[in-house]
Amino acid sequence: MNAQLSAAEIQALMQAEARHDSGVYAKRDIMLVRGQGTRVWDASGREYLDCVGGHGVAVVGHNHPAVVTAITQQAQRLMICPGSFYNDTRARLLQRLAALVPGLERVFLANSGTEAVEAAIKFARYSTGRPKIVAAMRGFHGRTLGALSATWKKAYRQPFEPLVPEFVHAAFNKLEAWERVVDERTAAVLVEVVQGEGGVHPATPEFLHGLQRLARERGALLIVDEIQTGMGRTGRLFAFQHYDLEPDLVTVAKGLGGGVPIGAVLMGPRVRELKPGLHGSTFGGNPLAAAAALAVLQVLEDEDLPARAADVGAYLRAGLTRVSGSVVRAVRGLGLMLGVEVRTKAAPFLRALAERGVLALPAGMNVVRFLPPLTLSHNEADRIIAAWADVAG
Ligand SMILES: *Cc1c(COP(=O)(O)O)cnc(C)c1O
């Protein structure tokens, strides 16, 4: 499967993409054409160890054979089936998702992370009859207007104001701040267990437990956004399971489809019964994405990937922590969701890592983030550590 292109072709296609793409993406100077497992290849045939993983999507690795087979077979049978008809593959996926966490036994299927967050916000408002959503400073929940209203970063919000009313932000890991704003008008509190885009900041157990208690006391629902932390990334299937939380709604996307777009909201008993027509999606729950997600869930179990993320993640973290260059401010994370905060801008480090065959991504201006497939081996972790030592040691 040779996807190599000539230098002239690469140049021409990069120009075409730069010219005709919307312009909303800051491009890196690499054209990726192929992936397999933990590796991706650029158009000139150069191999990289992929710690970008499509922004954390490739939890089972790129092109996992079980996912490829599942979508190939499903594509030959039926790709689209509206939610108004039953479908065998969707039924199997719903059954499987509903069995993941006791108590979260109803599921809404969407097509992306931001759509899952939109649905969770709507269901929380509907369930409580209250308008207000309290989210975390530095939190990221997506780019559509509702999810964007919950997102903290000014640069993402300001160009699109006015946003949805009744969204409030409180400091992450500071329960006192939430005690002041969560009230009898609050439908839900919305948090990530480890803030991803915001710089790889894990929540403290005290904060999460306090938030859950506060939400219960004041009649608000707890929405945990597991779009980045879910599907085994942090060493448990969902990051909230490290803390024994009982969220009312959980949003999932990224890794769930193994590269095929899909999002989901898992719902507990405090979410009111939802009526036909209340919400919906043309593509939500389509059999193609459902087949992919079913395969991913099977792979996570068969290959014991959450445990592997815990093991290799701890190893990688220890290795990154040993690189004690004066430029490093902190190493943070959980499982295979790791961030190194540097004292200068992250971008030059990302370029230097790529030159050494390792792709990583930023989280804000100063954090180099590693989101490798959970199939990463210890040897590959060593390669990442060596590359990082070379650029930051
Ligand atoms: C990526 C992400 C989203 C948005 O997902 P999209 O599929 O890009 O819409 C929402 N929340 C968190 C925590 C994320 O990491």
Description:
The chain is an alpha/beta fold and 393 residues long. The protein is globular. Helix content is 37%, strand content 18%. The two termini are 37 Å apart. It has helices at residues 7-20, 53-56, 65-77, 88-98, 113-128, 145-150, 154-157, 175-181, 205-217, 287-302, 305-322, 347-355, 378-392, and strands at 32-36, 39-42, 47-50, 106-110, 132-136, 167-170, 186-191, 194-195, 201-202, 221-225, 249-252, 263-267, 328-334, 337-342, 358-359, 361-362, 367-370. The model has no long low-confidence stretch (mean pLDDT 97). The protein has 13 helices and 17 strands. The chain folds into two domains: 7-60 and 304-392, Alpha-Beta Complex (Aspartate Aminotransferase, domain 1); 65-302, Aspartate Aminotransferase, domain 2 (3-Layer(aba) Sandwich). Helix 3 packs antiparallel against helix 10 (287-302). It has a seven-stranded mixed β-sheet, sandwiched between helices. Bound molecules: pyridoxal-5'-phosphate. Pyridoxal-5'-phosphate (PLP) binds next to helix 5.
Rg calc: 21 Å
Strand content: 15-25%
Sheet of most strands: 7 strands, mixed
CATH topology-level fold name of the largest domain: Aspartate Aminotransferase, domain 2
- Structural class from helices and strands? alpha/beta
Distance between the termini: 37 Å
CATH architecture annotation name of the largest domain: 3-Layer(aba) Sandwich
Separate helix tally? 13
* Helical fraction: 25-40%
CATH superfamily of the largest domain: Type I PLP-dependent aspartate aminotransferase-like (Major domain)
- The CATH class of the largest domain is Alpha Beta
Shape: globular
Strand order of the largest sheet: 4-12-11-10-7-5-6
